[in-house]
């Protein structure tokens, strides 16, 4: 995959609401096999789609991309040996030594592409419409749904749901909302009204651990307020919870209409791929993509055939060097 294929794949992942990272080569030193402008997508599962370089660069870029997705912060990498550049390395650039048999080097920019927050507001009051407008101003995906039209398929584990039906079938709407197991679920209303609704649902057999996650009243406590201020208080609470990492899954994949997807913990890192160090050149090697050499009861992995061949000729030379280091 290259060129327009990478861009098309980005569009498809974005439409599906999947998080990924985009790696772009911004500079190369010959004889690197990549070119400036080469791009690759790295999925949350650690799959690389596209081209940014050969076996030396790929494991490092995948590892760094997964960290970028977890942190939500872009980074600029210099893949080469520090001796090649000396004092010319700019501040803020992350230098990762690679010492394969070529003397090439790459500068790679990795940026996270994360789904926007998804807020579902159930109700048709002025407060609900104000909240939807404010969330939209933050760039969030805000869906305003009438109470009778709402079902659990309108949200999933990454969504935030605010029930603002204000006495119109609160119990039925909240029961549907609880079934979606959202990252956040708040009910607009007084504590007394909330206790009544939650007690009714408990009597209907809704599990206590699910009901305990319902916030009543939704939003920060700002005292006696107008409907516009209530909307601000609710949005402020959501921003605060997201910033603190308290909303499970809300930075993960956004829901697709009519579907439910498995949750991912907030800030969770994708499962790490098994990695070891090539004893010859010191490069990171993914063990599930390299055939090992067994020596004295241990398996050793290599980034390329040249390193494997060098090791096979004189294993002790590299293992003794590793011990001294």
Throw out a few tags for this protein.
15 strands, single chain, 32% helix, Rossmann fold, 325 residues, alpha/beta
**SSE sequence, one letter per element:** HEEEHEEEEHEEHEHHEHEEEEHH
Strand fraction band? 15-25%
Distance between the amino and carboxyl termini? 40 Å
Low-pLDDT stretches: 250-270
| Biggest β-sheet description | 6 strands, mixed
On the 0 to 100 scale, the average pLDDT is 83
Number of individual domains? 3
Q: What top-tier CATH class of the largest domain fits best?
A: Alpha Beta
Coarse morphology = elongated
> Which structural class is indicated by helix and strand composition?
alpha/beta
CATH topology of the largest domain: Rossmann fold
How do the strands line up in the largest sheet?
A: 3-2-1-6-4-5
Any guess at the CATH architecture of the largest domain? Answer: 3-Layer(aba) Sandwich
Rounded to the nearest angstrom, the radius of gyration is 26 Å
Number of DSSP helical runs: 9
Please estimate the helix content: 25-40%
Structure explained in plain terms:
With 325 residues, the protein is α/β, with parallel strands linked by helices. It has three domains: 11-113, no CATH class; 118-244, Rossmann fold; 275-324, no CATH class. Helix content is 32%, strand content 21%. It has helices spanning 4-15, 57-71, 126-137, 170-179, 191-203, 208-211, 227-244, 305-313, 315-324; strands spanning 20-29, 39-43, 48-50, 75-80, 94-97, 105-113, 118-122, 141-145, 160-163, 184-187, 214-215, 275-277, 284-286, 293-295, 298-300. The strands form four sheets. It has a six-stranded mixed sheet with strand order 3-2-1-6-4-5, sandwiched between helices. Strand 9 (160-163), helix 4 (170-179) and strand 10 (184-187) form a beta-alpha-beta unit. The longest helix is centred in the last third of the chain and has 18 residues, at 227-244. The radius of gyration is 26 Å and the shape is elongated. It starts with a helix and ends with a helix. Mean pLDDT is 83; it is low at 250-270.
């Amino acid at each position: 995959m290259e060129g327009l294929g990478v861009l098309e794949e980005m569009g498809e992942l974005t439409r599906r609401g999947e998080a990924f990272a985009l790696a772009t080569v911004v500079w190369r030193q010959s004889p690197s096999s990549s070119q400036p402008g080469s791009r690759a997508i790295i999925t949350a599962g650690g799959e690389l789609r596209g081209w940014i370089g050969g076996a030396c660069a790929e494991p490092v870029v995948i590892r760094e991309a997964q960290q970028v997705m977890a942190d939500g912060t872009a980074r600029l990498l210099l893949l080469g040996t520090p001796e090649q550049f000396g004092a010319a390395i700019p501040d803020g650039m992350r230098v990762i030594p690679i010492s394969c048999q070529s003397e090439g080097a790459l500068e790679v920019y990795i940026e996270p592409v994360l789904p926007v927050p998804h807020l579902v507001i159930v109700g048709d009051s002025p407060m609900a419409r104000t909240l939807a407008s404010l969330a939209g101003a933050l760039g969030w995906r805000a869906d305003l749904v009438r109470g009778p039209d709402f079902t659990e398929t309108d949200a999933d584990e990454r969504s935030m749901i605010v029930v603002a039906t204000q006495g119109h079938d609160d119990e039925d709407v909240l029961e549907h909302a609880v079934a979606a197991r959202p990252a956040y679920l708040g009910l607009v209303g007084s504590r007394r009204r909330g206790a009544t609704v939650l007690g009714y649902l408990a009597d209907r057999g809704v599990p206590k651990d699910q009901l305990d996650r319902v916030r009543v009243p939704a939003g920060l406590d700002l005292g006696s307020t107008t409907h516009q201020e209530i909307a601000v208080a609710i949005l402020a609470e959501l921003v605060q919870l997201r910033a603190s990492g308290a909303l499970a899954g809300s930075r993960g994949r956004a829901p697709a209409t009519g579907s439910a997807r498995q949750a991912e913990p907030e800030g969770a890192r994708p499962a790490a791929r098994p990695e070891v160090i090539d004893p010859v050149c010191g490069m990171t090697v993914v063990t599930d993509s390299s055939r090992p050499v067994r020596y004295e009861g241990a398996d050793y992995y290599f980034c390329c055939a040249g390193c494997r061949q060098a090791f096979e000729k004189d294993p002790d030379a590299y293992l003794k060097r590793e011990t001294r280091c």
